[in-house]
Specification:
The complex is a heterodimer of chains A (about 200) and B (about 170).
Chain A: H1 2-10, E1 21-28, E2 36-39, E3 52-59, E4 68-69, E5 71-74, E6 82-89, E7 94-102, E8 109-110, E9 121-127, E10 137-146, E11 154-163, E12 171-175, E13 185-191
Antiparallel strand pairs in A: 1-13, 2-12, 3-9, 3-13, 4-8, 5-12, 6-7, 6-11, 9-10, 10-11
Chain B: E1 5-12, E2 20-22, E3 30-39, E4 47-54, E5 62-70, E6 73-82, E7 85-92, E8 101-108, E9 117-125, E10 133-141, E11 150-154, E12 165-171
Parallel strand pairs in B: 3-7
Antiparallel strand pairs in B: 1-12, 2-11, 3-8, 3-12, 4-7, 4-11, 5-6, 5-10, 8-9, 9-10
The chains are: A mainly beta (about 200), B mainly beta (about 170).
Chain lengths: ~200, ~170
């Protein structure tokens, strides 16, 4: 259902985008690029208009690696204010792990330059209550990294992250180490608690 | 043109409350509930589950399959013929007061009276420096009735914590 839902929303990005799920920013890289930044002020509507944000991305890195972690900081905060919990499988085994406190979180992992050509990693990332100043920010990533036509090169991850800050979110920066490969795509959606 | 994804209702709790019920569900293809919630359960390590019932049905009519990670432990669970839909997780009282849990509950084809109602949910008790919980699951309500109400309650705690919020959305098929 998530895919159908996203498809409906993405196609409604123009004037008829009057439901509760709004396409507010999009970046498709036309050259290898070190980082991707989304800001409230750079979106078509400020993030204060929305309760939640959802990031949809398909990306690849220029460094080598089967699953390059995309290091992400919110509001330029690089202090040890992030924790995450994941469950991961590569088709052969399942594992869970908690990490942190640490100075970033990782919404997704992506294939590197030494993996099969044209393979991109995909993720849907939910940010709850981005404007709430009475709670930390909870983030949930559905992360799929298909790196090669071989077993054990591919992973899926469900990952919960927390940014331990009560500040409203106004910015996040994603950095894969090396560059994001040209063609990587990032779409940001805002979810309202009203319609229109 | 109708919108594909519409907000239907919001409940933000101004005080600790035992349960939340949505009973005006509109006429959509699917429903989605997005929640940011916390339980009053005062038990270490500081998380609670979520119980869900449709149409106030407390019979043994729910089946569920789930996959979850808690710290370094991965596990799966399966329940058949249970009295409510059970999934995970939200923060609870021993944890930092700023820590909540988030979940997205999808209720598919909820008005169709020719099939049992299928549910998909993913959620998390956001991790702190000691504990984290993440969950993905599917479930079935063994009843062909149209879903007319959805009740959400903490699994072990007495109440949802004040400040918990629950938003109901409808998804159209055209």
């Amino acid at each position: 259902m998530q895919i159908a839902l996203l498809g409906a929303a993405a196609s409604a990005g123009g004037p008829s985008d009057t439901g509760s799920w709004h396409a507010i920013a999009s970046t498709t890289l036309t050259s290898d690029t070190a980082s991707v930044t989304f800001t409230s002020s750079g979106s078509s509507s400020p993030w204060s208009d929305y309760q939640d944000l959802v990031l949809v991305m398909a990306a690849r890195g220029t460094n080598n690696g089967v699953g390059i972690g995309v290091t992400t900081e919110i509001n330029d905060d690089s202090a040890n204010n992030y924790n995450w919990q994941n469950i991961i499988t590569n088709g052969a085994s399942v594992a869970a792990a908690r990490t942190g406190p640490i100075g970033y979180f990782r919404p997704c992992h992506i294939p590197g330059a030494d993996r099969s050509a044209n393979f991109f990693g995909a993720a849907v990332v939910h940010f709850w209550d981005v404007n709430a100043t009475d709670r930390y920010k909870t983030i949930l990533s559905q992360d799929g990294n298909e790196a090669a036509n071989a077993t054990d090169d591919n992973t899926i991850v469900l990952r919960s992250s927390v940014w331990a800050s009560t500040a409203a979110m106004t910015k996040f920066v994603m950095n894969p180490g090396g560059n994001f490969k040209s063609g990587s795509q990032f779409d940001l959606y805002g979810i309202r608690t009203s319609t229109g | 043109m109708a919108d594909a994804y519409e907000h239907i209702a919001t409940t933000t709790l101004g005080s600790d409350t035992a349960s939340v019920t949505f009973s005006s569900l509109g006429s959509y293809e699917h429903l989605q509930i997005r929640a940011s919630a916390r339980s009053t359960l005062n038990t270490t390590p500081g998380y609670d589950g979520i119980d869900c019932r449709f149409n106030s049905d407390a019979g043994a009519n729910y089946d569920q399959q789930g996959l979850h990670g808690f710290n370094s432990a991965d596990a799966q669970d399966e329940h058949a013929g249970i009295n409510d839909l059970r999934f995970w997780a939200v923060a609870s009282d021993p944890s930092n007061s700023n820590l909540f849990g988030g979940f997205v509950l999808n209720i598919l084809d909820y008005r169709n009276t020719n099939k049992n109602t299928s549910v998909r949910v993913y959620g998390c008790r956001g991790p702190d420096s000691s504990n984290g919980f993440v969950f993905f699951g599917g479930a079935l309500w063994e009843d062909t009735s149209a879903v007319t109400s959805v009740l959400l309650a903490p699994q072990s705690g007495s109440n949802w914590k004040s400040g918990s919020s629950f938003d109901l959305y409808g998804l159209r098929s055209s």
